[in-house]
UniProtKB/TrEMBL annotation:
GO cellular component, as recorded: endoplasmic reticulum membrane
GO process terms (BP): GPI anchor biosynthetic process; protein localization to plasma membrane
Pathway: Glycolipid biosynthesis; glycosylphosphatidylinositol-anchor biosynthesis
Domain of life (superkingdom): Eukaryota
Membrane topology: Multi-pass membrane protein
Organism: Anopheles sinensis (Mosquito)
Family in the record: Belongs to the PIGW family.
Subcellular locations according to the entry: Endoplasmic reticulum membrane; Membrane
One Gene Ontology term of the molecular function aspect: glucosaminyl-phosphatidylinositol O-acyltransferase activity
Major location category of this protein: endoplasmic reticulum
Protein name: Phosphatidylinositol-glycan biosynthesis class W protein
Transmembrane segments: 25-46, 53-70, 148-167, 187-204, 219-237, 249-271, 291-308, 320-338, 358-381, 415-435, 441-462
Functional description taken from the UniProt entry: A acetyltransferase, which acetylates the inositol ring of phosphatidylinositol during biosynthesis of GPI-anchor.
PANTHER family: PHOSPHATIDYLINOSITOL-GLYCAN BIOSYNTHESIS CLASS W PROTEIN (PTHR20661)
């Protein structure tokens, strides 16, 4: 097909999408969580120590099924999720039924929760698969980014990145929080790589005339610039807030103010097709107007991170279970709020409105709670005897490293993983007219693409190389 004609086809496939349901999107996110559960169980039973073999098993059971789920098996997402949930529950109950006498003594490490590694890595993994899969015909259009309002699998990417960065934000002691010229310079310096990536993406895509959809963020704005501004403003607000308990009220207040401004006419201004893009603000109105929503999402995620990450070395199982239950309860409230917001004013990624923020929090809290229950299960099943803080300091065997190699590697170099995924996605789109390829060719390219990505980050992880700048 002629390049100009193909570009028109590509853009038409990305426009006027009204999405699917919030539940259907979650049914594509949940299966990898259960896949991780069964992969860890298999590796523990088989005692696989050989790294290449372990890598192939993990790729075959975690990455490859997800590629199939978002392409040729997407219509079976609900059945697959329910089947995996039932099998996982039966397996877990079977393994813990004879260990109830250990309940009062089971301990979980407090300082380095591995469930957060799984959450963050899963966000990166799903995003990497989807940013290329969406360019193929086998990817369902209802899961692509929505034009105005609605639920799409591709809509959750930037929101979950904000969530995953907020949940691991380290709240500084109150006595160390002060805003001065030195602190501001450090904040801007830490965000500078993201600004540079944003500018580089803009100039590169313009130079090669890469297909872009200005309704996502605007003409000059993009994913990296949004993350950079959220990092800067979020860090400043966190330095001003003395009590971590106050963070949730700041997030709620900011989100309510944002929604009110949208209702006062800002929403119509952003969404209107008649609004020109003559100046910088109007050209990038989606990215600029959505910032308060993403900032509120970041602050809410920081509060959740403060809940789930204890400061003590040892956490008793009952206390850990209460934390997991609290996160699950927050998830249920957020799921309810999604439908309340949808009925009142819709859910929009372009605006990052209240409905969108509750949607991201619902998904993030649900996945976090599932992995928290999984971590508790691991320590419950493998628990031997109680240890004191002094014993834990002297020994290294208290922490049970259950996280799959691929997820650990992705989390260690998350931004590098995402950058390489973007570069390879661009190269594939330059080399192939992806929308014209059949299912077999699309799956072959996707599997090879993800295999190379996972090999690259696993190689870095095995050699203890970290390229993190966030």
């Amino acid at each position: 097909m002629d390049p100009a004609e193909y570009r028109t086809l590509h853009e038409s496939q990305m426009e006027n999408n009204n999405g699917t349901t919030a539940l259907n999107v979650f049914m594509h996110i949940a299966p990898p969580v259960f896949s991780v559960f069964h992969t860890v169980q298999l590796l523990a039973v088989a005692s696989v120590a050989h790294i290449p073999v372990r890598f192939l098993i993990e790729f075959s059971l975690i990455v490859f099924p997800f590629i199939l789920l978002v392409t040729v098996l997407h219509q079976l997402a609900l059945k697959i999720t329910l089947a995996l949930a039932v099998v996982s529950t039966i397996s877990a109950v079977h393994q813990i039924r004879n260990r109830l006498h250990l309940v009062p003594f089971v301990q979980v490490p407090g300082k380095s929760p591995q469930f957060l590694t799984c959450v963050r890595a899963l966000v990166n993994l799903t995003t990497a698969v989807c940013i290329l899969a969406v360019d193929f015909h086998c990817f369902p259009r209802e899961l692509a980014k929505t034009e105005t309002f609605g639920f799409g699998l591709m809509d959750i990417g930037v929101g979950l990145y904000v969530f995953s960065n907020g949940i691991v934000y380290k709240v500084r002691p109150a006595e160390e929080r002060r805003i001065d010229a030195v602190r501001l310079r450090r904040i801007l310096t830490s965000a500078a790589p993201l600004f540079l990536l944003g500018f580089a993406r803009f100039f590169l895509t313009n130079e090669i005339d890469y297909q872009l959809h200005v309704s996502e963020y605007g003409v000059h704005w993009n994913f990296f610039i949004t993350l950079a501004f959220v990092k800067v403003f979020g860090t400043i607000i966190m330095d001003l807030v003395r009590d971590p308990e106050v963070i949730k009220f700041v997030a709620i207040t900011l989100l309510c103010c944002h929604e009110m401004m949208l209702h006062l006419g800002v929403s119509r201004y952003v969404m209107s097709a008649d609004t020109g893009r003559a100046d910088f603000f109007s050209a990038n109105r989606e990215g600029i107007v959505s910032l308060p929503g993403y900032l509120a999402l970041f602050l809410a995620s920081v509060y959740l991170g403060w809940i789930v990450r204890p400061s003590e070395e040892i956490t008793l199982a009952k206390k850990f279970l209460r934390r997991a239950a609290k996160v699950a309860l927050i998830a249920l409230v957020c799921w309810k709020m999604i439908y309340v917001c949808e009925d009142m004013f819709g859910v929009s990624r372009r605006l990052a409105n209240m409905g969108y923020c509750f949607w991201i929090l619902a998904i993030g809290c649900s996945v976090t709670a599932l992995f928290m229950f999984f971590e508790l299960f691991v320590y419950f099943v493998r628990f031997e005897e109680p240890k004191s803080p002094d014993q834990i300091i002297k020994t290294d065997d208290f922490c049970i490293p259950y996280v799959p190699l691929i997820l650990e590697a992705i989390n260690s170099n998350g931004l590098f993983f995402f950058l390489i995924a973007n570069v390879l996605t661009g190269l594939v789109n330059i080399m192939f007219q992806t929308f014209l390829l059949g299912n077999a060719a699309a799956l072959t390219i996707l599997v090879y693409y993800m295999f190379m990505l996972c090999v690259a980050v696993s190689f870095l992880s095995i050699n203890n190389v970290k390229l993190k700048i966030w």
